[in-house]
Amino acid sequence: xxxxxLKQAALAELNAAQDLxxxxxxxxxxxxxxxxxTALLKSLGNxxxxxRPAAGKLINxxxxxxxAALASRREELELKAAMPKQxxxxxxxxxxxxxxxxxxxxxxxxxIVRAFRxxxxxxxxGPEVEDEWHCFDALNTPAxxxxxxxxxxxxxxxxxxxxxxxxxxxxxxxxxxxxVQIRVMEKQPPPIRIIAPGRVxxxxxxxxxxxxxxxxxxxxxxxxxxxxxxxxxxxxxxFKELLGNExxxxxxxxxxxxxxxxxxxxxxxxxxxxxxxxxxxxxxxxMVHPQVFENVGYDPExxxxxxxxxxxxxxxxxxxxxxxxxxxxxxxxRFLQQF
Length: 339
Ligand code: DAH
Prior knowledge:
The protein has helices at 2-16, 20-31, 36-42, 52-82, 104-118, 132-135, 178-187, 228-243, 270-274, 290-296, 312-320, 333-336; strands at residues 122-123, 129-131, 171-173, 192-201, 213-223, 248-256, 259-268, 280-288, 304-311. The chain is of the alpha+beta class.
């Protein structure tokens, strides 16, 4: 019978289709509005009236069968199209995704900050492009101090077309984080308990212990009746937190224009001994100079305080036994991966 043979031909073609495009072709060919099977349906009208119901039924059953075949072949071909074009070698080693880490200097900074947070300090911030007032004048640093020399400090020339700012507004890259002390005290009344980590810049040639940019952390504590004992106790606590309980700290008299008295802090630990030294100089500190309080509008008769500043690279070098500061800035992955 015509219906049966047409159905078989259609099924054969649908199943023979090797891709979705060929399948679409076959569909149009038989089931489309001008398709062969559709034509069969249309020709029903030519049959004698009594034969029509039976023939119509047959055609409809065949059509349902064809549509089911079409759907199932489509599913197969869609699956095939979604398969990788090339064979997969499941024996190949996997591709490991490397997990990023924090830079060792960031890790050390975060540890220092954590240690100070435990005793109530908060983090303060200031600009790296500073002016002479905040970096030097307000810190009681005299105009002829060598640190202010262009040999030591990067000064910033006026932006093109604008007038160069006159001292003490002259712009420079801060040489230390001590400028943040002034920024904080200008903004808020005592008591103050802050630390300020950040980048600083000096016109040094890079060598194993110097880099033109490095990081410092500043501390400032202002309240009534603050003593050198508070300073020493705080410094000792933080270094023990950072580098272990065997750490010893000693203070040596020194000079800074913004503190009086001033000290240098040396510290000793098994690691320092391993480096063949008894003591390593690590930080500067002292009791805030009354003139500095005057400069920010605090009454030096009422307020007392201490400040310190130290280099973060120094601490990281001791902690990780690194002998060249430049390694921190070369971004060599093989170096950085170790921390
Ligand atoms: N600013 C000093 C430096 O760059 C370090 C320093 C010394 C900071 C004494 C202080 C301080 O706050 O009181 O080496």
